[in-house]
Write a structure and sequence with these properties.
This protein is an alpha+beta fold and 328 residues long. It has 3 domains: 4-36 and 123-160 and 212-325, no CATH class; 38-119, no CATH class; 163-197, no CATH class. Helix content is 23%, strand content 18%. The chain contains 10 helices and 13 strands. The protein has helices spanning 8-12, 57-66, 77-83, 94-98, 128-139, 180-192, 213-216, 235-239, 252-255, 291-299; strands at residues 30-35, 38-43, 70-75, 117-119, 148-153, 162-164, 205-207, 221-223, 226-232, 266-269, 275-277, 284-289, 305-308. The strands form 3 sheets. It has an 8-stranded antiparallel sheet. The chain has a 3-stranded antiparallel sheet with strand order 3-2-4.
Length: 328
């Protein structure tokens, strides 16, 4: 969108307060936190070698040499909490549920008694299928499901073109067994890395991004600490299970590598009945709207969601992490 004034109303509702108030507009009757799923894996038929790895190198070397099958799955926060004997609640911090902020030395993820190894939820947005699930609920709570605005944070790597010395994005690979195609690709990547010692005349140039040069050079919606590129689009489009595959900001080259479009950072309908916010620093998506919408999100079995107060601090530094600290 060339006219980014469509998002000016958001700026007026951001008060720069702590937690969600920094990125989630105020003024809605109710708010929901939609938890981004975590993941876990474990080997089949064998157990993990003991930790820390530095003191058990022989066992770990044998484990890797055997190349056991690993099964992996998504996991809800509530299930992770149960596995670690923690209490799940609306303002929970992931590190609180699994018992510590970082794994022990030599450990690449906390493990439960059943041998599952956990990876923390990804910040920045829901997976594509859960974007569609949330969007299908949101579409039923607006008079303009096909008319609205979808915004993407301008800071995602490779999204916008820029003046620089290296490409906006590359895909790292490793040639296996002398694969000629991969070897040529790796050679291209090597040429893309600036060598100031042997090429002192190297000058920055325009590096194309995922979006067109016109969009890259165009106006952006400026909000506190964030800039966004705006697109016209209704939430009904996002409700399509394949909607994220057709998103205009999806990297077509990345699609060949099995990568999906990044979840939108902001979505709102023209009637402004609600707003959905997915910030790069948050491991949950926040929705502001009327109580009926929030109740529908919380009740949807496809989503893990809970009602929260607008002033909830959802960052890792947040102090309201106990069940008795949850406000109404």
């Amino acid at each position: 969108m060339g006219d980014v004034s469509a998002g000016a109303w958001l700026r007026d509702r951001l008060d720069g307060g702590p937690g969600a108030r920094r990125v989630v507009p105020s003024g809605f009757p109710s708010y929901a936190r939609v938890f981004h799923p975590a993941s876990r894996d474990r080997p089949v038929g064998v157990e993990w070698p003991p930790l820390p790895e530095g003191r058990h190198r022989r066992e770990w070397a044998a484990f890797r040499a055997a190349r056991p099958e690993l099964v992996d799955e998504r996991v809800r926060w509530a299930d992770a909490a149960a596995a670690f004997g923690a209490t799940m609640h609306p303002l929970a911090q992931w590190s609180e549920l699994v018992g510590r902020l970082r794994p022990e030395p030599g450990e690449d993820g906390p493990r439960d008694a059943a041998g599952w190894r956990y990876q923390e939820p990804a910040p920045g947005g829901l997976p594509g299928d859960l974007v569609a699930a949330a969007a299908s609920v949101l579409a039923a709570h607006t008079t303009t499901p096909r008319d609205g605005v979808v915004a993407v944070w301008a800071g995602w790597g490779g999204l916008l073109g820029f003046h620089g010395e290296t490409p906006a994005r590359t895909f790292l690979t490793a040639a296996v067994g002398g694969d000629a195609v991969l070897e040529r690709h790796n050679a291209m990547l090597a040429r893309s890395i600036p060598d100031r010692f042997n090429n002192v005349f190297l000058r920055p140039g325009w590096q194309p991004g995922i979006l067109s040069d016109e969009i890259s050079r165009g106006p952006r919606l400026e909000l506190p600490a964030r800039e966004h590129v705006l697109f016209r689009g209704g939430v009904a489009e996002l409700a399509d299970p394949d909607g994220m595959r057709h998103a205009p900001w999806r990297d077509r080259e990345a699609g060949e590598h099995g990568l999906d479009a990044q979840a939108p950072s902001l979505v709102w309908p023209d009637d402004r009945a609600w707003v959905m916010v997915a910030d790069v620093d948050l491991d949950s998506t926040v929705v502001g709207g009327d109580p009926a919408l929030i109740a529908a999100l919380v009740a949807d079995p496809r989503l893990e969601a809970a009602e929260i107060p607008v002033d909830a601090d959802l960052t890792r530094a947040g102090g309201a992490t106990r069940p008795d600290a949850v406000g109404g």
